[in-house]
Amino acid sequence: MPSVTVFQQRLHQLQAALHRAENFAARHPRALTASVVGTLSCFAVTAFGIAPLAPDAADLPRRTLVETVATNDIASQLDELASHAVALTRAEATRSSDTPESLLKRAGAFDTAAAAFLRTDPLGRRVLQGRAGKMVHLTADASGQVQKIVVRFPAEKTEQQQSHFTRLTIERDGSRFTARTETAPLQSQVALGNGTIRSSLFAATDDANIPDAIASQMADMFSGDIDFHRELRKGDRFSIVYETLTADGEPITWDGGVGRLLAGEFTNNGRTYSAVYFKDSTTGKASFYGFDGQSKRRAFLASPMEFSRITSGFAMRFHPILNTWRQHNGVDYGAPTGTAVRSVGDGVVEMAGWQNGFGNVVQIRHGGDRSTVYAHLSKIDVKKGQRIEQGQRLGAVGMTGWATGPHLHFEFRVGGRHVDPRAIARASEAVTLPGSAKAQFQATVASVKTQLAVAETMGGVSAAE
After folding, report:
1. What integer pLDDT is reported at residue 312 of this predicted model?
2. Whole-angstrom distance, CA of residue 312 vs CA of residue 344
3. Which of 39, 187, 213, 217 has the most other CB atoms within 10 Å of its CB?
4. SS3 per residue for 91-109
5. What local confidence, expressed as pLDDT, does residue 460 receive?
6. Which pLDDT value is given to residue 462?
7. Which of 233, 240, 236 is nearest to 217 (CA)?
């Protein structure tokens, strides 16, 4: 076996090679050179030793094998490493005051050609068009020249916006740029949260970093148990389990970045209510249920909007345009223009279009000679003859027709006669859980009980796989 002197000679040779490499690095200051030399230093000071394998190891036969390993010259290795381009990737959110130049500069890129492309190309312009806050992922080389830009938007088609997103990719191709868009599915993960009521539901969910959309769903989940306008008490508590949505693994920054509320517990005035979202795998029907299997859902929702304020009820009122006292045959809900409007029950679209003082209006025909009307819409998202499910989006709040401000006028008719929508919702039959789904339901309840127990002990909100 080689003696200690031989190892010392090899160590001196490695140290000499290292010295030559350091001199070379000083003459050739390339990217990553210092890192490579530091790595070689670690190898150069390795110690060697042999330990006996057994008490009689000295009696074992010995053979010395010598093998020559061909390696590239250190200088050529450093040259090759230095030739690799260094890329910088940054993520920046767009601002309302942004120009192509200011966005690129903030991301560490200085590229007039890229700025011109963002200003003139139809797809390139979409990076800064619309609402600010879009997350832009930009890759540039060491000189600041843009190599790639990726931006994610809501899906182009309305019916896909809850499940998909649009990915815009801009890439350098020589001295030119190419752009393309593609639709990809959103991914979901589970989040837990809890909170305590100090003043209002939304103030409590804001304090706990829970999205407003989830707060609205929670109000909907427990609307049959709690009047969130009148019955909330300071000190009421809640714990929830819900979905958050990501695009390419990153949280969504636009509206709709959350999925559905999966389960919740709400303690109001000393009494605790529990509910879980459950979808029957056989029928495909989904609803909120109490842990005892009793449905929280009735045939008709109490409101065509998730959470809003009533500005005019089903009663006599002084008409703001006609300036006369007359019966108001519906309920008006005040809300900002663009707020989603949903169907209160399953049915078929009987009318979708313009109708005199109602402006843009949708009328849904339900079973039992019942129908509902949604008026003054800024946008209509359904067509005549289309089958609609409870909770499905019909359009958006507006002030078309005879309206003095943005609001939704909602009517419920039975046999052509106007009735109070809130009375119909309270008296409507509950949706029952099929007997065939009880085993699956109990398994779901057992799972969310564990998650809610964890959520109750947390402060704020947390994500869980």
Report:
1. 42
2. 18
3. 217
4. EEECCCCCCHHHHHHHCCC
5. 54
6. 58
7. 240
pLDDT score at 7 = 52
What's the CATH architecture for 87-185? Roll (3.10)
CA 287 to CA 98: how far, in whole Å?
Answer: 44
CA 356 to chain centre: 39
Structure token digits, residue 457: 């002990």
Residue-level pLDDT at 307:
55
Topology at the third CATH level for domain 309-427: Glucose Permease (Domain IIA) (2.70.70)
The residues of the chain scoring below 50 in pLDDT are: 1-4, 21, 24-54, 309-327, 465
Q: What is the third-level CATH fold of 187-285+438-464?
A: Nuclear Transport Factor 2; Chain: A, (3.10.450)
- The whole-number pLDDT of residue 305 equals 79
Return the structure tokens found at 21: 């490499």
Give the integer Cα–Cα distance in Å for 341 and 422. 16
Q: What pTM does this model have? A: 0.56
352 exposure class (CB count in 10 Å sphere: 0-12, 13-18, 19+): buried
Contacts of residue 94, Cβ cutoff 8 Å, sequence gap at least 6 = 103, 127, 128, 132, 133, 134, 136
Alpha carbon of residue 127 to chain centroid: 19
Q: What is the pLDDT of residue 197?
A: 94
